[in-house]
Amino acid sequence: MSQEQDAAEQALGRAAAGWGVDLDVAATLAGPDGGSIDRDEFFGWLWAECGAGELLGICEGALGVDEAAARGLAEPRVVDAAAAPPERDWVGGLDTQAATCWFADESSARRAAELVGRIGGCRVRAIRPLAATPTADWRESFAPIVVPSFGVVKPAWEEGVAGTVANLTTMFIEPGCGFGTGEHSTTQLCLMALADWVQAGGRVSRVLDFGSGSGILAIAAALRGADRVEAIEIDDRTHAAIRANCRRNGVEARVGVLAELPDPGAVYDLVFANIVPAVLIEHAERLCGHLRHAPAGGCLVLSGLVTDEVGVVVERYARLLATDPVCTGLGEWHCLRFATVPSRQRMR
After folding, report:
1. Cα(224)–Cα(207) distance, integer angstroms
2. What is the C-alpha to C-alpha distance for residues 102 and 18, in angstroms, rounded to an integer?
3. In what order do the strands lie in the sheet with 299-306?
4. 111 Cβ contact list (under 8 Å, min separation 6)
5. Which of 94, 101, 144, 265 could, after both became Cys, cross-link 21 (CB 3.0–4.6 A)?
6. Is 29 helix (H, G, I), strand (E, B) or coil?
7. CA dist., res. 205 & res. 269, Å (int)
8. Nearest Cα residue to 186 out of 251, 274, 301
9. Cα gap 110→117, rounded to integer Å
10. Which residue did the predictor score with more confidence, 333 or 61?
11. How far apart are CA 261 and CA 287, in angstroms?
C-alpha cells in the first residue's frame, strides 16, 4: 500500500470499512462539458455527481516537507505545518496528484470509477476494498512525552486530571489539532523555559502565546499558575480545537483565544513566540512592547530557529530589549530567552 493510500484510510474513516477508488488527477482537466476545469473544480463536481449517499470522503494525499522541498515546493525547514495555509498546500502544487475517494460499497465505487474515467486528465489506478482500521491503531503511535524540568504531555484520550504537583506538570493535548503535541523540540524548549522561569521566581500572572497552534504553551502556563493567558492563532480554523484542549485541561476560564495580537499597551509577565523567523522579525517591536519591564520584569521566549537563523533574531531583539538572551537547544533547534529583570534574578 502506498503512503498516499495509507494516509487516505487513516483520514477518511479510522473505524469504518468501505471501498476506495485511487486516482491520478492532473492540475487541469477536461470537464464533462468539454471545457477546462482545475483540480478543485473536479473534486467539487465529483461530490455533486456522486451525492452524499455514495461518496463518503476524498483524501488528496500527503506530502512531507522533505519531499516537498526536494520538488521545489517548500523550504526545507517548516515549523508550523499542522494547519496548512495556501502557501503550504504542497500537494496542490503537484502536476499530478494521487487521491483516494472513499465509498460505502463496491457498486458506488465502480459507478464513480466509470464516471471519472471519462474525464480527461484523470486516471483510475485501482478500485479496492478498504479494511476497517480500529481507532486504537493510530492512537498507539502517540505515547506520553516527558519534558525535562516541566513534566509530561499526554494524549487527550488518556485518563487523568491535568495539574502541577511538586513543580512537575501533567497536561493533555489532542494530536493533530494544531502544531504542538509536545513531540517537537521547539515545543519542549518552550516548556522547559516556562519551568525555569517559574522555578526562578518569575511572575506568570499574565501570559501571551503568539502562534498558539494547539494551545499547548498557553495551557501549560495556565497549569503553572497564570491567571490570564491570551492564545493568539491567526488560523481561526484551529480555535475550536484550542478551546477543546483548554477544557480537557480544566483551564478554559483562564485562556482566551484570539486571531490577532492585543492592542498596544497590554503587558505580560511571559511572552511565547514559537514560530518561523520571518514572523519573529516582523513582529519584534510588538512582542517586545507587550513584555513587562521594571520593576517586576518579564520573560520573552522565542523558538522555531535552526542554527543559521539565530543570529539575525538575536540581533533584532537584543537591540530592542537592551539585553542578551540565554540560548538553549535540542538537536538542530534553538530557543532564545530574554529576561527584563536584574541579572541576579535571571534564569539559569
Report:
1. 11
2. 7
3. 255-258, 228-232, 206-210, 270-274, 299-306, 333-339, 326-330
4. 50, 54
5. 101
6. strand
7. 7
8. 274
9. 10
10. 333
11. 9
Long-range Cβ contact pairs of 60-65 (< 8 A, separation 24 or more): 60/91, 60/92, 60/97, 60/99, 61/4, 61/7, 61/8, 61/91, 61/97, 61/98, 61/99, 61/100, 62/3, 62/4, 62/7, 62/91, 63/90, 63/91, 63/94, 65/90
Contact by Cβ (8 Å): 212, 222: no
pLDDT digits (tens, 9 = 90+) for 279-293: 999 999 999 999 998
What contacts 18, CB < 8 A, 6 or more positions away? 56, 102, 103, 104, 105, 129, 130
Whole-prediction pTM: 0.67
Beta bridge partners of 273: 210, 302
| Buried/exposed 128-146: b ≥16 CB within 10 Å, e otherwise | eebeebeeeeeeeebeebe
pLDDT of residue 78: 56
Beta bridge partners, 26, equal 96
Q: 142-345 has which fold?
A: Rossmann fold (3.40.50)
Rg (CA), the chain: 23
Angstrom distance (rounded) from CA 345 to CA 304: 26
Which residues fall within 8 angstroms of residue 163, CB to CB, at 6 or more apart?
169, 170, 223, 250
The domain ranges of the chain are 3-136, 142-345
Phi-psi region of 212 (alpha: psi -120 to 50; beta: other; left: phi over 0): alpha
Helix, strand, or coil here: 249?
Answer: coil
Q: Which amino acid is at 164?
A: T
